[in-house]
Amino acid sequence: MRYRPISPAALAAELTARIDSFTQRGRLAVAVDGADGATGTAELADALVDPLRLLGRPAVRVPARGFLRPASLRFEHGKRNPDARYTDWLDLGGLRREVLDPLADDGTGEVLPALWDPGRDRATRLPRVPVPERGVVLVDGEFLLGAGLGFDLVVHLWLSPAALRRRVPENDQWALPAYERYEQEVDPSALADVVVRVDDPRHPAVYEPEA
């Protein structure tokens, strides 16, 4: 596999240009996928907001953590069950209904930036946010591929197995089997539009398929 080294700033610029090149639809949904707390998905999504706005593409940030299911469902099999984290934590239906469906050509154009507050374990009751034509919704989180979510562009932040074990926070080490299962069952690098190796977040590298 061949990776092209790139600076974080240049990566954000390349992704911004690629997003801006989409002209097929009025509103876009872009996913930044990777292990929570280890890959910097939120930081990369945040870094795209201002460059997109400068190109006349208003950006709305939607962290997938705002669409976790209630604690009674997430922790039904214990708070540290890797299989539950992989299959049961994210409210896929809510994310599809409140964020992705409204961006369709016949959708309302109004998205809900978060449905559930996992800290207080209650609904956020946030107002919907209108996404204008040429607007972009940036969703960051883990396990976003292989679930039938209709993103226009997916960026997957990949870690080598050794780096994954090193970078996952200590209190989340129990989730490592979930990430291994995602890698084996979904192979996100094969499905994503852009794959970025982030073993060292200061020195990312973009995967370039062999010609």
TrEMBL record:
Gene3D superfamilies: P-loop containing nucleotide triphosphate hydrolases
InterPro entries cross-referenced by the UniProt entry: P-loop_NTPase (IPR027417)
Protein name: Uridine kinase
Naturally occurring in which organism (per UniProt): Amycolatopsis saalfeldensis
